Amino acid sequence: MAYSxxxxxxxxxxxxxxxxxxxxxxxEKVNKTLIHEYYLLQMSNARVAIxxxxxxxxxxxxxxxxxxxxxxxxxxxxxxxxxxRRHGGVAFWPTNARNxxxxxxxxxxxxxxxxxxTLKAQEKALAWLQLPEMQPKTKDAVAILxxxxxxxxxxxxxxxxxxxxxxxxxxxxxxxxxxxxDYLNPRDVMHADKIVxxxxxxxxxxxxx
Length: 209
Known about the structure:
Elements: E1 4-8, E2 14-19, H1 32-45, H2 106-122, E3 126-129, H3 138-147, E4 155-159, H4 164-170, E5 176-180, H5 186-191, E6 194-198, H6 199-207
Parallel strand pairs: 1-3, 3-6, 4-5, 4-6
Antiparallel strand pairs: 1-2
Helix pairs in contact: 1-2, 3-4
């Protein structure tokens, strides 16, 4: 199925349409297993191992044997750092040496992200916005979202290059996130109700397979 995207001006009016690249936005190339794997990779690689415990060799305390080996009538006892004693070391618990990192090839990540964007195209959740340079005014950004009927939606604004005026205008608006095209990722795409590409960003995406 061929997909197209509406082109809006800043007043919210549809001025044209553009056909999406069939090599990128293709139903037969959507691999949900690969998309899921890419999402897990992103979340795992962002995870930091903060749970950390000390084993019996790391806790502070003497290594002296508490009681003599024989003659007490009790079981043999080691030092006070034993895991069975209060304030002793911890056995079989996590350390901050754990590694959650996952790996996917660049080609697999690209196929997964293209498939995810195709799913968004099926939902008609993609838009192209013609937006010239802006002065940093949140009020103007709010007016644009209202014109596009996106004021109550989670919006992902995709830029091709850094544009200070646009970034400062949108950064304080709740539910709006801006991102550069090179940093497009499955988590942000999945969680957005609408993905709004600025003109240069969608052109670049549509031309590069």
